Amino acid sequence: MNIHSIEMASAAEIKKHQERELTEALRYAAANxxxxxxxxxxxxxxxxxxxxxxxxxxxxxxxKEQLQEFNDDFLCVPKSQIIDYTTTSGTSGRPVTFGLxxxxxxxxxxxxxxxxxxxxxxxxxxxxxxxxxxRRFMAGLAYFLGLRKIKAGVIRVGAGVxxxxxxxxxxYNPTYLxxxxxxxxxxxxxxxxxxxxxxxSSIKGAICIGEPLRNQDFSNNTLSQKIxxxxxxxxxxxxxxxxxxxxxxxxxxxxxxxxxxxxxIPEVLDENDRPITDxxxxxxxxxTLGIEGMPLIRFKTGDIVQLHHEPCQxxxxxxxxxxxxxxxxxxxxxxxxxxxPPAMIDLLRSFPxxxxxxxxxxxxxxxxxxILIRAVAANPTDAxxxxxxxxxxxxxxVTPKIVFASAEEVNGIMFNPMSRxxxxxxxxxx
Length: 430
Hints:
It contains 11 helices and 21 strands. It has about 425 residues and is an alpha/beta fold.
């Protein structure tokens, strides 16, 4: 499958293409979305006046809360045309249902196909899918559809169970894995315990979801370095969400997730919803293109990211999305320092003695943020606790409250059977 020519076009051509697609997307939403029809009438907005990407600033943003409150009003087609019902994971509020039409499923397949091609998967590769495809989870279905489109083989193993994963790898010889990256450490641990020579297996690379692999300068973070120190495979980071129905995937140069201009328009806004023009980080806001069931206009993702505009060595000229700094709702103000959970998670992972952890945020009597970290350690000692605290102070300038807890206590919270992902951050703030 060839790369869409628009990704190789000049910045001016990409902008022109996106503005044509934007015009069509706005007309469609104004005519078919009860929510946007009502919004445009209330704000006296004539969509024909929005002709350029800069004109987008004339439109209000769409928030997660609005999507939750008016969920059904975002649907642009009769329910008889919905082929698949998908829900968000609900990690920061009530889950939202998205209805996808047959055309939307084709778009989803196309998105994943070009994302996989970006990361080096080709026709004839065999890919082991190590995520769920059920429970109304968009990503698992998207991966399957995308791999099918590029005529790659798919082994649908699902999440967890290292023994089953290795049985499948050794039997079917897949070339790539699609997985949460921290699970790769469990695969390595199982292989070492059972005499499996994982560095001589068929695996060439892993498409990693759900957890960051890079620091802001695109160097390996602690998690990816731990994997790479053991297993000589290529790791590809991806960024996507149900709301976007679009992925930003790394190429072999590992310098951010590539933008597919024909599928989505990204913006980065400051706290006042104004565009950030100096290249610094801000909240990613997206307008979806080509979606029939539930298109979104200027949707605030809640993710703090930085956009990179210089051309990539792979030949693509579309912009790239850097690693997620953190979730806007999860920003912590602690003793005068602004923190996001990913920074604390990366630091905790740098200690091989720490097996699992839960970060809990609450509000104290003074109305300010408090942090409690419950850590599971192989050999919990006062010396280890002091070392962890000193490392926090050196790297993040502050030391949260850290206590050792039992594996049973922490694992019971982390691996909730009702959650699609391990839970290692709990926000109990008012």
